[in-house]
Amino acid sequence: MENKKVAVIGGGLGALSGAIRLARLGFSVQLFEKNPKIGGKVNEVVLGDYRFDTGASLLTMPFVIEELFDFAGFTLSDYLDFVPIDPICRYFFPDGSVMDASADKTKMKAAIAQLSPDDVAGYERFLKYTERIHDLTAEIFMFTPIHEFKKLMKPRHFQTLFRLHQIDPFRTVHQSVSRFFSDPRLIQLFDRYATYNGSDPFQAPATLNIIPYIEYGLGGYYVKGGIYRLIDALETVAYELGVQIHTSAKVEKICHDGRRASGVQVNGERVEADYVLCGADAVVAYNELIDGHQNRRDKLNRLEPSLSGMVFLWGVGAKHAELAHHNIVFSNDYDAEFKQIFKHQQVPDEPTIYIAITSKADAGHARVDGENWFVLLNMPSLAPEQIWEKEKDRMRSVVLDKLRRLGFDIADRIEVEQVYTPEDFSELYASNQGSIYGISSNSKATAFKRIPNRSRMLDGLYFAGGSVHPGGGIPLVMLSGKMAATLIAENHESKISGLC
Ligand SMILES: Cc1cc2nc3c(=O)[nH]c(=O)nc-3n(C[C@H](O)[C@H](O)[C@H](O)COP(=O)(O)OP(=O)(O)OC[C@H]3O[C@@H](n4cnc5c(N)ncnc54)[C@H](O)[C@@H]3O)c2cc1C
């Protein structure tokens, strides 16, 4: 194959999955990651006797990973063990009640019946409704590069395009969830799924109610050994296929002549390439790596970043049987929490607290009588007036106080600690304003406004990762890598057969 060199920017999941596919297709692939380790927002650290995943903690749609392994010619089960999680999450509500959510329909209905018997029928209807949204939208919004006119205009997509009104785009997530449930606790529980792609349930279109279907209909998983094992496995596959992975290698520029990308500049050296696959945040790439194109930059800078987060990693020298692998301690006023975050770009006074404890599944992740707590709070993306050093101390007290009132008095049991603020996410992973899922889906047209997988500005430049179509989260960024790799391969094919 002529002209087959690809430079891949970043070692996140979108870039990695694209790199693997391209290598399998015969391209010569070099991947450049600025950090000493690949994985991006899926990462791990060891602090004393405790081991932590630092980013993603719940895996959905594992078939996306399986398909990548199949494509690459590897057997997934030789590398990874996906463990279904049950309960998927334990919810602690403001009134003191607790509920275990499960993908097992019978268990879930029983849990809802205990909380609010009148809402069991609503749950049945809600599941059907979310499944309908899934069936109508998944193919087109998750598996198709919708900005490619020829791919969008396939007869099998017409049905969806003509039935767009049926995917509930005009109500918000909260408005729709409230139609199915009467109990405010259940409304809060199902509203929460908007945060899975970093959005606000009180603004985001109800089409995002596809997300509960993905969790309850298709299941939630843990990767045995920790989510970072996924990166280890993909790194092995990439090496086997000949991808050259360079770490501590920051791409400083995407080289171009105004019309076509021709390579990258890394640590002062120019690396020629026929195609560039950018897995770094595309908004940051347009701001920092691509000269010219000011109009495009201005337009992208107007897109609203997704939620950011504050993460506390705590090695806790005590066991808590009352906590599950995944736990949510809800705020008293969800609406106020999201107003502070999205409308006022403020740190919420009383945030919802998410706690994931992988030592519940992998005892070796903590010392024998301890637990490894990953604590995540919803946060706004970076705003100039926030002083994160101060905020992280304030939030630490707020969280520990609230947990103490719930009966988890861990303040004096924390043996090791590491904290990540939105500023850290911005610096560590070069994410746009510290956002953790790319662009928010708060606007009705977000699906179409997302950055395409193929650059309109520069030939030969393609994008993968949470900031571009189809969006953030493990499975979606891996699909973005698939779309970008497929588009590169198709472009290459048509070039060598003289079609363009
Ligand atoms: C705290 C947290 C919790 C999350 N929880 C979940 C969850 O439970 N489930 C889920 O599915 N998803 C979750 N996510 C989201 C998920 O982790 C991300 O959507 C996904 O990992 C992002 O992948 P990406 O391809 O966009 O690359 P990223 O992870 O953003 O990686 C981009 C990489 O590019 C590198 N880079 C950037 N610029 C350059 C440059 N100029 N040169 C070289 N390298 C560069 C960065 O260092 C980084 O390694 C979570 C994320 C966070 C942060």
Quickly describe the structure:
The protein has three domains: 5-42 and 225-304 and 441-496, FAD/NAD(P)-binding domain; 105-219, Guanine Nucleotide Dissociation Inhibitor, domain 1 (Orthogonal Bundle), CATH 1.10.405; 307-429, no CATH class. The protein is built from 17 helices and 19 strands. 37% of the residues lie in helices and 18% in strands.
| First and last CA, distance | 16 Å
Largest sheet: 7 strands, mixed
DSSP helix fraction: 25-40%
List bound small molecules.
flavin-adenine dinucleotide
Structural class per helix/strand content?
alpha/beta
Shape: globular
Rg, rounded, reads: 22 Å
Find the count of extended strands (DSSP E, 2+ residues).
19
Question: Would you write up a description of this structure?
Answer:
With 500 residues, the protein is an alpha/beta fold. The protein has 3 domains: 5-42 and 225-304 and 441-496, FAD/NAD(P)-binding domain; 105-219, Orthogonal Bundle (Guanine Nucleotide Dissociation Inhibitor, domain 1), CATH 1.10.405; 307-429, no CATH class. 37% of the residues lie in helices and 18% in strands. The protein has 17 helices and 19 strands. It has a 7-stranded mixed sheet. A hairpin with a 4-residue loop joins strand 10 and strand 11 (261-266). Helix 1 packs parallel to helix 17. The chain starts with a strand and ends with a helix. The mean pLDDT is 94. Bound molecules: flavin-adenine dinucleotide. Flavin-adenine dinucleotide binds next to helix 1, strand 14 and helix 17.
